[in-house]
Amino acid sequence: MIVAHLRRHLEARDFTQRLFETARTPRARIKALADLQRRVGRSTLPDGLRERYVRMLDEIQNTFLRTNKVFARIAKDRPPHVDEVMEFASLLAEGAFTEGKCVVAARELVGHHVRSTAFLRAYLARCKDATEQRADRFAQFFATLAAAGLPMRAMNTLRVLLADDEPAARGYVEMILRDLGITELTIAEDGREALTRFEERQGAFDLIVCDWKMPRLSGLEFLKLVRAVRPDMPFLMVTALATIIAVEEAMAHDVTAYIAKPFSPEQLEEKILVLVNRR
After folding, report:
1. Fold category of 155-276 in CATH
2. Higher pLDDT, 39 or 97
3. N- to C-terminal Cα distance for the chain?
4. pTM score
5. 66-101 burial, b for 16+ CB within 10 Å, e for fewer?
6. Where are the domains of the chain?
7. How many CA atoms lie within 13 A of 29 on its CB side?
8. Gap between the Cα atoms of 45 and 49, Å rounded
9. Phi-psi region of 196 (alpha: psi -120 to 50; beta: other; left: phi over 0)
10. Is 80 exceeded by the pLDDT of residue 110?
11. Distance between CA 86 and CA 145 in Å, rounded?
């Protein structure tokens, strides 16, 4: 009797109309379809019937999204506003899209933007004037993406080796790293100490941020030694010598990226976010 009742409602001609009458806004309608699909998926309906209704609800939501051009605001062919991308990320995190075509399309679009350098740059620029702690802002950002099925490397899990022989420059970079939410930070005051720290715990680092010009062992020499045992280790070279020759030399030894002094906090943050979330 219950199965017959469900079938009568789900297969009624005016089913979609009646459902949408109870949910007035596009957001509410999207969520109502996803919620109903979950309920049907957990129901005791016969397998074939359950799968049919799950697909049907995905098709209804897909038609609604296309007809109302819901994804147009975050289309791939133009850079959308940060808030618009994060609105869709939040919808994904809330389970607002039906399993099937709709959730796949939403994840593809949001993932396309949140992993792009342009989006990260725009997000960092917005965080610049945020009143709350930057580390908290980033933690919330990563948590939302993880719940949306788009995990990115959270900064509080990143293990970083920082090497710079100049106290002021080293302190500046350390401040930026900690503002990003990085807590596991190993400091080296020159190239030789950096090598010692690396040899002691080479498997314990996810990223190296290293100055080029250092006594006892230069950043380039350190890079060569790192590459001998960790060819894929993300290595960010900090340099005041951003000449073509210097860059080519670093690239020849597989530096992952470089950043030229002087740089702003947002420029370094962008480099790190892109580096540790490379596909």
Report:
1. Rossmann fold (3.40.50)
2. 97
3. 51
4. 0.79
5. eeeebbeebeeeeebebeebbbbbebbbbbbbbbbb
6. 2-114, 155-276
7. 18
8. 6
9. alpha
10. yes
11. 9
